[in-house]
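2 proteins. here.
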Amino acid sequence: MESLGGESVVVIGGGIGGLSTACYLADAGADVRVIEKNEQVGGRASRLERDGFRFDMGPSWYLMPDVFERFFADFGRTPSEYYELTHLDPHYRIFFKDGDQVDVTPDIERTKAVFEEYEEGAGETLERYLATSRENYEVGMEHFVYEDRPRLRDYLDIDVARQARGLSLLGSMQGHVEDYFDHPKLQQIMQYTLVFLGGSPTNTPALYNLMSHVDFNLGVWYPDGGIGTVIDSIAELGGELGVEYDTGRPATKIKGHAGGFKVETQTGDLYPDLVVSNADYAHTEQELLSPERRGYDADYWESRTYAPSAFLLYLGVEGDVDELAHHTLVLPTEWDQHFDRIFEDPRWPDDPAYYICVPSETDDTVAPEGHSALFILVPIAPDLEDTPEIRDRYRDLILADVAAHTETDLRGRIVFEERFCIEDFANRYNSYDGTALGLAHTLRQTSLFRPPHRSKEVDGLYFVGGDTTPGIGMPMCLISGKLTAEAVLEDHG
């Protein structure tokens, strides 16, 4: 490996992408310091602890375990040296609002039988669908995710074309799934993972059918202690490699260039040779850089399609909630309207689809004895009006909906409650328009059409995180950290 010995690097933002980059750069010999605006590292994967309850505030699904294994293996370690995993059964439970209930389990034969109940022949069709999904995953990950291809000419290579030939690259996920399944509920089951990519069935490329391999074949896991344990483990690994961390230290300006940067913070200035920003890309360019040093203007960011924001309720309740699984989805029979209210006609949805996470079903350390810890996440459009009065009304609507469709009435049992919504995403994470995830994975915002890891205007400034390649989600941000470090090593190693 090329060496960065003698180089100093400041990583702005301690989200999973920034933590990943810091590990790789420190391992290459750089002197690395991570500065984080908030009181803890993790970025959107923050943790809320109060009154004996513990919640993962953001990501709560541990998917793609192979990516985490590969990350730790890059440093001669394994995830099991830092945390243990529980394979969830069921992976998740779905309540349809017409009264149907479906459990998706690790047993693919049971899942095929469920599909068969809705549509004759759908069990075998699922097997064919997952075979395609597996192929797309294996080819896509190795040749298009772990390898950064930021320029069009990177795709005009005969070997690249050969690898891409079998992939479902074009068309929408809606059209792709309809080619296999007729029943709308089966289509929903195959498409719900798009929420993790910040898209809808009609605006997400068919390539992302690879997520079904992640879901059905690789499984859904729970790291003991929650996602916060994974964040702690990556930070611990960084510490072992020499990374230093400063929390509660927001960056306010980035000046200079490679070999002579000045990073202004609220508690003093830093003078590194190189800078990596894990802060939101738009925030870095629009707020931390002067206009002549920005790669994209305000019109660019205004014209992008953003992933949803979210209305979140973190709840501590008395007693059990056994009707709910660790991961529970509540879906309207027709969910097009919900996606329209996010992407086409932005407003608070009247009949929302939403997700409930109940970690206390698996982990008794996240709630006091005799209590349950859970949160409810409703995807909503970013940049909506977000007032205390609206939150009050929507909180009551959601709790009534939960009672009506899951046989679980939480009202009257709540002993702890915290809310999080659009304004909080904007204030805590500097996210554009209060999006919960960043740039959506539309066809025009996938792969080389996402902003690059290298600054277009400032030598020695790099970007990492969900707005870059490969995109949104914890595994993708881990890989983004590796891609950014490789760019730094290529330029300055």
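next one coming up
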Amino acid sequence: MAASCVALLALCLLLPLLLGARRRWPRGRAARHVLVVVLGDVGRSPRMQYHALSLAGCGFSVTLLGFCNSKPRDELLQNDRIHIVKLTELQHLAVGPRIVQYGVKVVFQTVYLLWKLMWTEPAAYIFLQNPPGLPGIAVCWFVCCLCRSKLVTDWHNYGYSIMGLAHGPQHPLVLLAKGYERLFGRLSHLNLCVTNAMREDLAENWGIRALTVYDRPASFFKETPLELQHELFMKLGRTHCPFQARSEPSDPATERSAFTEKDAGSGLVTHLPERPVLLVSSTSWTEDEDFSILLAALEKFEQLTLSGAGLPSLVCVITGKGPLKEYYGRLIRRKSFRHVQICTPWLEAEDYPLLLGSADLGVCLHRSSSGLDLPMKVVDMFGCCLPVCAVNFKCLHELVRHGENGLVFEDAEELAAQLQRLFSKFPDPAGELQQFRENLRSAEQLRWDESWRRTVLPLVD
């Protein structure tokens, strides 16, 4: 309560300055200008990057506000119509009770975001990512009222349900966040969401009408040509042992990675016949992804390999950054695998699609905190025609069709059985894994740009 009073007092003191900032801009320029707001790392918010690129491609000028902890895609950085405004993130406070620390952070973000928005050129629309929506929804709605803009809230999940993973569903902060989202979510002019299940939940329980805009892969998510695979493996091999060759080629001039070989004379790249399986997973290392499931499945896979089950060696690459990375890193370092290697690189934005397009299988451990959102990492994998094994939850069927484009599992035992099933004859050009890939190739791969123009553009143009 005290934090709210402090925020209100600060707003009253700042309001004359903010209104003065608004008057600096001629109103006519706002019609083709859009603000895209991400109270998170822009580089790890692909959907909002795609919104910005799509808006720019349709002739809007775009100002993208967000934290810049990791590099966004080059297409976004090089686009003359997109201007990135870097937000400063208040570092974690280690003084006082947690609720006080959280209150101070919210007050700071409220005043700071309001200041940034009001000193930015007015826009016809403000596109806001939710979560995190506290205090973003309220601040953006307030700015829209002052500047006669329209607020578009893009619901990726519920912020309160994510908070509930750490604090419990009945924690006062979680209940407060739920009430806040319910109240201010209704004030948006337009609501987008990522699944039909979320659209129905917003309508039935929140009184919010939303449009489902499925995540779609961008055009750069596609199968990687063998020559580019080799270049990527050689590059990663300089810093990560699992990509390095297991044996030296007979010709010293021949380039060899753990998976591929490039002939010195002809330059021809081929897969090594005894190459390991390349399994890829990506994560934000948060509570909604339990990587102990994958580690337990890999332990079982190792045991099967040692017992003579005829399984290949396996390289597991887990990409991403997040709060639980060090915790799982310690668990991984304790393992003593002989036929399984695990590495956890942070890839450049341009290398990530190449890795997905080079892999044999993707694994997704995302369990939606609300049960209503879908993992975009699987969307990107499907764009690369990469089959997926995914842990099951409420609306996963809207994306992963069991036995058609991948497999769905419930626990580590089932995942281990699926790995054995898919890799028992690896690499088998007629096996089940290859059939999943062929199904993905033959399915209509609706890309983000095309989907966005069909669904969102008619509402904002």
